[in-house]
Backbone:
């Protein structure tokens, strides 16, 4: 079988979609269904993070937007009585608004300055949530959050799964559309060379802010979905772990690609749950860390580049060509 | 206590807290200066240093201030291995990669430590616990004074090392111009390993002082001090060791002041508020050269 890239993408997408639609019929375990819902939510979250990285901005504090979406949606739902299906998108709008504010402080920053500020921002939001905003948010204790669907409805988990699947598909479609539109091109141009992008008439500040807003919005949707699915929220949402997971998923899957976050999330969730079944606790994180580092060193374009890599290795093996020598001291790419 | 007394007390706490941050930030600066690598997992080395000191202390009962050297030596080794296995293959492949790699390291080191030492909070009782000296209107724990003396001693030692020894001068040369250093025959990869090891050793010293000051520690405690150390080197300017010292003291003062004025919950968040203000107003840091 020798597929080219476009064919891989096409058949991969169709197969994934088919599996995603049929899987609830293959299992009647509520545990697995619940797991799948959470996995879909994290696919949205990872894709949101990836969109920001696509514009050259790596955030280490995406838990902030995840959490803000969740809190805002819960509070709006509780105060107004609107169904969570609507408040999810309102809560995410709050996250997007905050995202723009963060973006404004970050537009001039790059790389790890940006990583630092976003990381710190998640901690500041957590601190605000448990101190000044405690009367509204319940402080460290957290609060109950309206369920997406009442557990009294028969088959509610199945409906919830398909609802979340639909939102996930819509999010990925939106990201796909953005990536291939002029906006996506502008993101790429800014990421590769800001000066040249500016020379081509692209305003980096505007597009960076746009990337922040879009990414924060989707992260907010993911956070709100998760919280309405679980039915309870605590300030732990803003924790470091929630900031690091999307990064881990995307790096493993393939940074800056549409399918990367999906592949990474699915593969890592499966590995994670298998490790969980063996009963190791801390060892799981160690293994995830090792996988992440191995991926960065040996598979810099992620799992989605694996087919091409394998083909290349094979070709080289046939021709008995030596590996291309990397100049480790070449810092010109920095 | 009167206002002046409270102010002095906060200042003193700030200075003592600042000492630990200074050591951590100097280590980061050393690594950044030579390798231009951003190691987000730096706090994890502080944590390992803390645990090594505590373990040796629990086993043998030696005065923990003396274990600082052992702990630093151990971390030179660990740091060299981490540099060789993890950072060298990705050097020059982009800043974001280094950040992502650090995340992997954080996962591994934190949870590896949790496997070895469990994830319970622990603390060590210093042999000088309870001894306090009168300084002006204050009574200051002897431990705090010793911590300041140790910090000053280590920084002086580092200064001598960097200015007087061959390896130190090679490190400075590499940090100023990597290609130039290679041209004059310096083995920059060896210097990378040494710098990373020394950076980690400084983190271990910070960890040891953390332990002897009686503060609690667990495998996940490293992240927050590390991030503060980052804030400090951004405050003080990248690669500037005097900047790190001033930044460290300011940070110690600011967080203790904030904890007093706004409540303990703000102790961690305040450093980021400062950081964000500095970055917005002056992205190159207070004393920094031009950013990259």
Residues:
């Amino acid at each position: 079988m020798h597929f080219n890239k476009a064919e891989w993408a096409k058949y991969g997408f169709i197969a994934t979609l088919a599996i995603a639609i049929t899987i609830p019929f293959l299992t009647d375990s509520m545990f697995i269904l619940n797991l799948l819902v959470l996995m879909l939510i994290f696919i949205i979250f990872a894709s949101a993070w990836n969109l920001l990285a696509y514009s050259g901005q790596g955030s280490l504090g995406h838990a902030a937007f995840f959490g803000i979406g969740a809190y805002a949606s819960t509070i709006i739902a509780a105060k107004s009585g609107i169904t969570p299906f609507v408040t999810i998108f309102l809560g995410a709008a709050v996250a997007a608004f905050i995202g723009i504010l963060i973006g404004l402080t970050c537009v001039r920053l790059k790389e790890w300055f940006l990583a630092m500020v976003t990381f710190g921002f998640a901690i500041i939001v957590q601190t605000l949530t448990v101190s000044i905003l405690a009367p509204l948010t319940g402080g460290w204790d957290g609060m109950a959050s309206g369920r997406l669907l009442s557990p009294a409805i028969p088959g509610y988990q199945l409906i919830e799964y398909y609802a979340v699947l639909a939102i996930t598909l819509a999010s990925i479609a939106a990201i796909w559309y953005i990536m291939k539109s002029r906006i996506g091109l502008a993101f790429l141009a800014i990421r590769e060379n800001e000066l040249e992008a500016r020379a081509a008439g692209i305003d980096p500040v505007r597009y960076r802010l746009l990337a922040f807003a879009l990414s924060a919005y989707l992260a907010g949707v993911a956070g709100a979905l998760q919280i309405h699915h679980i039915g309870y929220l605590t300030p732990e949402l803003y924790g470091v772990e929630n900031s690091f997971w999307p990064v881990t998923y995307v790096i493993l899957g393939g940074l800056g690609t549409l399918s990367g976050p999906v592949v990474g999330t699915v593969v890592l969730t499966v590995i994670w749950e298998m490790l969980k079944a063996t009963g190791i606790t801390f060892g799981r994180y160690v293994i995830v860390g090792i996988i992440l580092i191995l991926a960065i060193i040996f598979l810099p374009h992620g799992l989605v580049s694996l087919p091409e890599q394998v083909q290349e290795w094979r070709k080289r093996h046939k021709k008995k060509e030596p590996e291309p020598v990397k100049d480790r001291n070449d810092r010109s790419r920095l | 206590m009167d206002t002046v007394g409270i102010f002095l007390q906060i200042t003193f706490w700030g200075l003592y807290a600042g000492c630990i941050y200074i050591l951590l930030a100097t280590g980061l600066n050393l690594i950044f200066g030579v390798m231009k690598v951003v190691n987000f997992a730096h706090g994890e080395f502080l944590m390992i240093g803390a645990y090594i000191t505590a373990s040796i202390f629990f086993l043998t009962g030696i005065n923990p201030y003396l274990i600082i050297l052992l702990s630093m030596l151990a971390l030179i080794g660990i740091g060299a291995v981490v540099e060789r296995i993890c950072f060298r293959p990705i050097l020059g492949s982009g800043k974001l990669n280094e950040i992502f790699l650090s995340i992997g390291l954080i996962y591994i080191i934190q949870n590896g430590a949790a496997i070895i030492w469990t994830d319970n909070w622990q603390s060590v009782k210093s042999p000088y616990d309870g001894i306090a000296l009168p300084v002006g209107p204050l009574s200051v724990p002897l431990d705090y004074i010793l911590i300041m003396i140790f910090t000053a001693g280590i920084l002086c030692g580092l200064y001598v090392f960097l200015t007087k020894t061959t390896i130190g001068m090679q490190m400075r040369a590499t940090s100023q111009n990597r290609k130039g250093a290679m041209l004059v025959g310096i083995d920059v990869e060896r210097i990378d390993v040494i710098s990373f090891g020394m950076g980690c050793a400084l983190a271990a010293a910070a960890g040891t002082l953390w332990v002897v000051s009686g503060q609690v520690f667990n495998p996940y405690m490293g992240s927050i001090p590390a991030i503060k150390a980052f804030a400090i080197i951004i405050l003080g300017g990248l690669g500037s060791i005097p900047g790190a010292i001033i930044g460290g003291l300011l940070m110690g003062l600011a967080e203790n002041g904030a904890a007093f004025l706004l409540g303990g919950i703000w102790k961690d968040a305040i450093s980021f508020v400062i950081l964000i203000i500095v970055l917005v107003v002056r992205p190159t840091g207070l004393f920094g050269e031009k950013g990259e």
